[in-house]
């Protein structure tokens, strides 16, 4: 019988990561079969999607509570099928709130349960790692400082690097990005990335537009590039432009093209999240900002382990780029921080060198490394050694 592997991936990012993993596993096990919850990229690799990954895309606690019964039913139905068919392994890709419950029960039933993408246990207080230790057979980590945390807790773990570091060039082609976006080479540009979620854009659009106005007063030649991921977020930002009577500002909204906009820009103002890591891999000077509800912010601040929220600072363990959050996220402070980068080419160059070192550390061939860690659970460590796979 061909090897069978159950998988669950949540949202578009998990679908992409899982599709690369399926391809890497198939290089060693061409007849392997995959089933579970996934998206179109996984299906393009031959994945049997019993449910689409979009079902797991919940936004905040309220949405999660509203859909609890639906998601719980799907999870129990998939668990019943896994117990009945007993695949060679289960791989949960991100989506920890959904997958850790499932992984614990798969592991208890005597099947390997592998989790791909460590939850942010290094960022928040609490005993989550104890639950992870009970639930998973193996953890695959994207960041180099994470394995030590799992080793201390007795969890088998592998560092596989970050997939974005494999995809992004070590030295981005800024001229090419400017030509694509029709930004003159001699112009100076700032990319504004207020987030991919509607709630983020609502919280940050007015502030980012206010920042653009102040910078435009100081530097009238500046162009502002605003990549937005969806029609809804684009509409929200456009409404904010009109609300702030900012139609006179040289703001160019883009549908997508976030990576191109950051590559083309002289500096980036970015909502905290994966986009800040993308900016680091593109070697861009940046200012990180975020705003949320007052009580939610107080709770998260009390739970936080680290002095930083931005991935570039966390990964480099240094205050490399300014973080202006909540009440500090004002147009005046953000404009001053961005002006600091625009006025200091030497500091920008030094930052680019640090980010190049980070890029090299994260570039590990993620999918192949993850596959190498998973294969012993499917075909056995001895077989892997005979094939020189580990």
Automatic annotation (TrEMBL):
Keywords recorded for this protein, A-Z: Glycosyltransferase, Lipid A biosynthesis, Lipid biosynthesis, Lipid metabolism, Transferase
E.C. numbers: 2.4.1.182
Catalytic activity as recorded in UniProt: a lipid X + a UDP-2-N,3-O-bis[(3R)-3-hydroxyacyl]-alpha-D-glucosamine = a lipid A disaccharide + UDP + H(+)
Record-level GO cellular component terms: membrane
Pathway: Bacterial outer membrane biogenesis; LPS lipid A biosynthesis
Claim: Lipid biosynthesis is one of the keywords in the record: yes
One Pfam family it belongs to: LpxB
InterPro entries from the UniProt entry: Glyco_trans_19
An MF annotation (GO) of this entry: phospholipid binding
Signal peptide (from-to): none
Enzyme class: transferase
Described purpose of this protein according to its UniProt entry: Condensation of UDP-2,3-diacylglucosamine and 2,3-diacylglucosamine-1-phosphate to form lipid A disaccharide, a precursor of lipid A, a phosphorylated glycolipid that anchors the lipopolysaccharide to the outer membrane of the cell.
HAMAP family in UniProt: LpxB
Family that this chain belongs to: Belongs to the LpxB family.
Protein name, per record: Lipid-A-disaccharide synthase
Organism, scientific name: Pseudothauera rhizosphaerae
Gene from which this protein is expressed: lpxB
